[in-house]
Amino acid sequence: MKCQILHETKNRMRVHFCKENMTIEEADKADAYLKSISGIDDVTVYERTGDLIIYYSFDRSELIEILAHFSFENDEVKNIEIVGTARLVQREYEEKLIMTITLRYFRKIFYPLPLRIALAYIKSIKYILKALKSLAKGQLNVSVLDAVAITVSLIRGDFETASSVMFLLKIGEILEEWTHKKSVSDLANTMSLGIEKVWLKNKNDEEVLVSTNKVNVGDKIVLRTSNMIPLDGEVIDGGVTVNQSAITGESVAVNKTVGSRVYAGTVVESGECIIKVTQINGQGKYDRIVKMIEDSEKLKSSLESKASNLADRLVPFSLFGTIFTYAITRNVTRALSILMVDYSCALKLTMPVAVLSAINECSNYNATVKGGKYLEALSKANVIVFDKTGTLTNAHPKVADIITFGNNDKTEMLRLAACLEEHFPHSVANAVVNEAKARGLDHEEQHSKVEYIVAHGISSLVGDEKVVIGSYHFVFEDENCTVPQDEQDKFNTIPNEYSHLYMAINRTLVAVICIEDPIKDNVKQTLDDLRANGIDKIVMMTGDSERTAKAVAEKLGIDEYHAEVMPEDKAMFIERMQADGNSVIMVGDGVNDSPALSKADVGIAISSGAAIAREIADITVSSDDLNSLVTLKEISNLLMARIRSNYRSIISFNTALIVLGVVGVIPPTTSAFLHNASTLAFTLKSMTKLM
């Protein structure tokens, strides 16, 4: 692509694509493609001008090389699927807003008075019908106030006031609809899939790991515990329980047997099956997510609901105030001043905008929040519970050593371990698979059906031999495996500074894989900052050994820790904390953390963790920097302060307008203008960043 560099500073470049025009689809594809390149930190695309602002962290010459070879005709760019683009929503409502304002002033300047009067009557029908429908349902809401104000103005012959009120109401409707559509689009896109590879059954009935975009309709995919389902399909073998709350809103996992339909974006909680793919694009999933969001109250915090309910409850008082004012003053103008001002527009619009703005701000810090109520819960939380491995410790642990027993070869033991572990991705499993890959080990499928025991390990058959790999508890206590008699001393001297993964064949230990699992950078500072932002108690719960857990807890200054715990233990601990009146955050990354993430007031999953943890969690954060937890807590605290401030300001300002109108200081038209102008001002303020 021919480009022109317009401006640049260190690690920032503004370029212009030298092409006649850029479509919204092209802008989205350019944005998605460039952001996918390692070293490009952020991209902003302006489709109207064809300009891009690129932030990068590699050499300038590399960026120029990338741009020089970029083309919308390249397969890697053409094949990018864009679903539910926010850019399209933005363009649509910008044009609606501009058109509405332009038509308003065009009519005022060029239309004769009789035509403007006729249009005022015609436009009023919509508002009057809406009010009549509300009254027919026994509802006395803001639409009734609007209709009364418009009708009284028309009866009095004050057509300009009626037109102004309807124009401002139209602007409010567009802004509210724009906000809603943008929120749905943003949230649906954050819930989109990020599944790059799947296990495919080939023609020889072998499992092959392939890229998702190479899967076609009719292909067979193997799904196991903790897998996110990448594509719509039909179960043709086996059976699973599926968590499909992201699609249907169901809180209970659903059993899927032969003939059942499964949907992209849902997660296998337990079991194993083979599905035949029926749909390969993501549009179906996106549409279902949009419908789920629109049909639910997931975005609303209790403060939002309180503001909305209060606005409706104030309507009868506004009507009574209008009648009372007219009865006392016999002045229609003063009475109308009350109708021109209602609390609903500002309360119902600014609160959701504030929440959605905060959610979008969180995404700038690599945090995906699924709804406003979770930010509210986060602001109230005083206890936080952490998983250890992959959460407090490095998300990308490494194999430090392989200690073999029974004269087994290290290479072969690593090969076998990787063959088993690659089916159930977890930070420790990934460490084993990556080590095998780094050593160039080919680990073709040698085993029969793999069984995953949550929080324990993996069991399978290689030929006629049973192979198990997992925790000490699983291998030695559940499976009753033993250490070779003449190698007990060797077993006793395994280095304590590592986490250990035990592997046994036919109940005899064959290898211990030592995992280097260092604590993440700045975790101690993160914990201190959480305390400074309202967290009173920090707890660590891990399935690791007492020795390892104690060392980590002491190093980080954690208030309380529990070692060798099961998934249900974590959930029960959170229930006990809640029973004592605490509001609890749970942070984890594994399948075994899922029950606790579900029980907590706020469940936070690490982005590199298991799919089911991300699915169940209310918030997802980057694995690289736990400091985003502090940022989330700060944003949630500031958001609740903003909502309360908006609440007080809106009530005070609109009450002042009503009083000024009643005493005759300002006319109804001015009241309406100031009311709507203040609503817009409060809304714009609510859209500003909190940090």
Cα gyration radius (Å): 30 Å
Largest sheet: 7 strands, antiparallel
Counting DSSP E segments of at least 2 residues, the number of strands comes to 24
Shape: elongated
Walk me through the structure.
The chain is an alpha+beta fold and 691 residues long. The chain has 5 domains: 3-80, Alpha-Beta Plaits (2-Layer Sandwich); 91-187 and 299-354 and 639-686, no CATH class; 197-281, Calcium-transporting ATPase, cytoplasmic transduction domain A; 367-393 and 519-624, HAD superfamily/HAD-like (Rossmann fold, 3-Layer(aba) Sandwich), CATH 3.40.50; 398-516, Calcium-transporting ATPase, cytoplasmic domain N. 50% of the residues lie in helices and 20% in strands. Strand 16 and strand 17 (465-470) form a beta hairpin. The model has no long low-confidence stretch (mean pLDDT 83).
Produce a short descriptive summary.
With 691 residues, this protein is an alpha+beta fold.
Topology overview:
Layout: E1 3-9, E2 12-17, H1 24-35, E3 40-46, E4 51-56, H2 60-69, H3 75-78, H4 86-110, H5 113-136, H6 142-155, H7 159-190, E5 197-201, E6 207-211, E7 220-224, E8 232-243, H8 245-248, E9 254-256, E10 261-262, E11 267-279, H9 283-295, H10 302-313, H11 315-329, H12 332-339, H13 344-363, E12 367-369, H14 372-380, E13 383-386, H15 388-392, E14 398-404, H16 410-421, H17 427-438, E15 451-453, E16 457-462, E17 465-470, H18 472-478, H19 488-492, E18 499-505, E19 508-516, H20 523-532, E20 537-541, H21 546-556, E21 560-562, H22 567-579, E22 584-588, H23 594-599, E23 602-606, H24 611-616, E24 619-621, H25 627-662, H26 668-686
Parallel strand pairs: 13-20, 13-22, 20-21, 22-23, 23-24
Antiparallel strand pairs: 1-2, 2-4, 3-4, 5-6, 5-7, 7-11, 8-9, 8-10, 8-11, 12-24, 14-19, 15-16, 16-17, 17-18, 18-19
Helix pairs in contact: 4-7, 5-6, 5-7, 6-7, 7-9, 7-13, 7-26, 10-13, 11-12, 12-25, 12-26, 13-25, 13-26, 14-25, 16-17, 20-25, 25-26
